[in-house]
Amino acid sequence: MSQGRDGFTTAFGALMATLGSAVGLGNIWKFPSLTGTNGGAGFLLVYLAATILVGLPVMISEIMLGRTARADAITSFEKLAPRNQWWWKVIGWMGFAAALLIMAFYSEVAGWVYAYIFKSLTGEIATTDPKAAEAVFGQMVSNPWSSLIWQWIVLGLTGFIIAFGVSKGIEAVTRRLMPLLFILLLVLCVRSLTLSGAGDGLAFLFSPDFAKITPAVMLTALGLAFFKLSLGMGTMLTYGSYFRENQNIAGTATRVMLADLSVSLLAGIAIFPAVFAFGFEPAAGPSLVFMTIPAVFTSMPGGIVFMTLFFILTAIASVGAILSLLEVVVAILSERFGLPRKTAAISTIAMIAVLGVPAALSQGTMADFKLFGLNMFDLFDFLSSNILLPVGGILICLFVGWVYGLAAPEKRLAEAGTPVQRVVIRSVFFLVRFVAPVAIAIVLLNGLGAF
Questions:
Q1: Angle, to 10 degrees, between the axis of helix 249-277 and the axis of helix 172-193?
Q2: Does position 400 have pLDDT exceeding 80, yes or no?
Q3: Is residue 379 within 8 Å of residue 371, measured between CB atoms?
Q4: Does the pLDDT of residue 282 top 70, yes or no?
Q5: Are 384 and 446 a contacting pair, CB within 8 Å?
Q6: If you placed Cys at 62, which of 178, 229, 236, 276 could pair as Cys (CB 3.0 to 4.6 Å)?
Q7: Residue 107 and residue 298 in contact, taking contact as beta carbons nearer than 8 Å
Q8: Hey, CA dihedral for 109, 111, 115, 120, is it positive or negative?
Q9: How many helices (H) and strands (E) does the chain have?
Q10: What is the pLDDT of residue 284?
Q11: Residue 149: closest CA among 123, 177, 110
């Protein structure tokens, strides 16, 4: 570790922080909705294969780059690229831009989750009619002050944590929140599985119908596998720069992947048996969390308690992901531009708060303001998810596989040099050189409407 540079103090802390980055609203919100709309278990199988062949090798590569460079996302590429290839640092700048754009709308969605904790406690969303739940949600997101205030609460809380640094802020919080998230998920799973008719939900999630695995389903699963692990935006590279020298990168990345998949599966077990037990539609899409889930939980005994627990765990899931996105920007401002840590944190939160205003108001006051046919919320999502992240992922693969990795790959990764590690290293470089960039390019083209 560079002298005077903060970092993770324990292997468990590094694992929990990295897992916190991968586990986000996508596990509780996006994964169940995409699984529901894409046929259940068949989608799950494709997603698992794509995670192993694309997501895991890119994650290992990013963490490896970060630990080797011990610097922010921009400076890392400057340090590791050949002297006459300065342009590789554009990957870091793309990560900087992507982190700001994602946080502009992601913090708004997290704000909705925080608001729903209180709405659950007060019984405001305690209705068995999804249409009534839809009306409550529509009223909240169309109210400008409600949208902005909840977004600012999220930014204020996470900004306060990030200002304390890596070990006393990110690591201290995630090593407590991630185990709590698993406990709350298990409680909800047990409750969901005790419902009459829960077996239909489990069959939907775990009994594949291979006829439903279409090219469109495969593309969706491939895209989710890449984005779900926080790749292509500099978060894993930045966190990797805080890893200890003796941290097993491949082992940690594999544990993160498996734990992330476990959270997604547990979320599905908590949601789908209850959805089927009370006769709701599993293919409800994004509305599953904010419109269908309140009706489902209200239908069961003790529903208010379990609904509140559900939104608390969803809020917990959002914290780790937000911290990793903030850290990309904070690290660049503090290390590259010399700002004190707290000043960098305040500046980052201020930038996101300003950039987030049009995203927060895009469902109400600014609903009619559109660019390229998209409101600002959807535009920020499109630019980051469909362009910056896949392009960044492709460039990382090309850099690791064909520039950095070709220069004695075994020296770069095989620090212990055991036969098993050498097999892993060669497999990672093969996938990063030949498989991952092609797969991510397909995701990019699909996101741009080429298929």
A1: 30
A2: yes
A3: yes
A4: no
A5: no
A6: 236
A7: no
A8: positive
A9: 23, 0
A10: 55
A11: 110
Amino acid at 395: L
Q: Is the pLDDT of residue 39 over 80?
A: no
Encoded tokens for 73: 């996302």
SS3 assignment, position 374: strand
Structure tokens at 360: 């927060």
**What is the Cα–Cα distance from 410 to 414, expressed in whole angstroms?**
5
Angle at 224 between CA 111 and CA 156, to 5 degrees: 20
pTM of structure: 0.93
Contact 95, 233 (CB under 8 A): yes
**CB 206 within 8 Å of CB 41:** yes
Over residues 222-258, the pLDDT tens digits come to: 888 888 888 999 999 999 999 999 888 989 999 999 9
Lowest-pLDDT choice from 98-112, 132-146, 333-347: 132-146
Amino acid 53: pLDDT: 92
Residue 209 identity (one-letter amino acid):
D
Determine the average pLDDT of the residues in 67-82.
94
Are 239 and 253 a contacting pair, CB within 8 Å?
Answer: no
115 membership: H or E segment, kind and range: helix 90-122
At residue 30, φ and ψ (nearest 5 deg) are -80, -45
Lowest mean pLDDT among 123-127, 147-151, 223-227, 407-411: 407-411
- The closest of 132, 136, 127 to 294, measured between CA atoms, is 127
With 0-12 / 13-18 / 19 or more C-beta atoms within 10 angstroms meaning exposed / middle / buried, residue 300 is middle
Q: CA–CA distance from 49 to each of 126, 137, 228 (Å)? A: 39, 36, 14
- The token pair at 72 is 């922010």
**What's the rounded Cα separation, in Å, for the pair 379 and 375?**
6
Position 151, amino acid: Q
Helices (H), 229-279: 235-240, 249-277
Residues near 450 by beta carbon (within 8 Å), at least 6 away in sequence:
none
Distance (Å, rounded) from C-alpha 217 to C-alpha 222? 9
> Tell me, what's the pLDDT at 66?
95
132-141, 200-209, 237-246, 306-315: range with lowest mean pLDDT: 200-209
What is the structure's pLDDT at 414?
Answer: 47
Mean pLDDT to the nearest integer, 262-278: 85
Which residues, in sequence order, are CB contacts of 296 under 8 Å at separation 6+? 271, 274, 275, 278, 280
- Of 233, 168, 172, 153, the closest CA to residue 20 belongs to 172
Contacts of 147 (CB under 8 A, 6+ apart): 108, 111, 140, 141, 360, 361, 363, 364
